[in-house]
Amino acid sequence: MVFKQTTGPDQKLSFTIVTCALVSLQFHFLRFFSTETCPKLNAPNNGKKFGSRYLVGHEVHFACDPGFVLVGSNTRVCLKDKTWSGQLPFCKNINECASNPCVNGGTCVDDVNRYACLCRAGWAGYNCHLTLNSRKSCKIV
Questions:
Q1: Domain that holds residue 123
Q2: What is residue 11's DSSP assignment?
């Protein structure tokens, strides 16, 4: 910071303050006028990438499709050394069978964003929660 004192013709004091922010200026210059680029990033399988500028200082964001969870960095920044911050993201299938939703000995089959239960004999329903009673007979009234 430079501080300068001057006097005017009527002997009143006026002050001029000059501030140099070279670091900030360099950052903004690199961010907006740089031709330095990082390598291209692709969207992860079963996910999306937001951002298409790979210049120093720019960000790229990532998200996964329903039924998947992001592993790695959801935001990456192009650094001065032309590398990306963070870790390469990927989308991992969420295992809907992890909570053991099938009851009464049913077997869970995981799929993308859903599951199915294979029920043992005598059981039915989405989670094998309904009993089938073969001894019941229908009465006609």
A1: 95-136
A2: -
Residue 74 falls inside a structural domain = yes
75 token code pair: 């935001």
Find the CATH number of the domain harbouring 107: 2.10.25.10
Instruction: Tell me the one-letter amino acid at 24.
Output: S
89, 51: one domain: yes
C-alpha to C-alpha distance for 80 and 66, rounded to whole angstroms: 34
Helix (H) or strand (E) holding 3: strand 2-7
Please tell me the total count of domains within the chain: 2
Q: Is 52 left (phi over 0), alpha (psi -120 to 50) or beta?
A: alpha
d(CA 26, CA 5) in angstroms, rounded, equals 29
Location of structure tokens 């006097």: 7
Reported pTM = 0.60
Q: Identify the residue with better confidence: 36 or 51.
A: 51
Answer whether residue 39 is part of any domain: no
pLDDT > 90 in the chain, percent: 65
Largest CA distance in the chain: 115
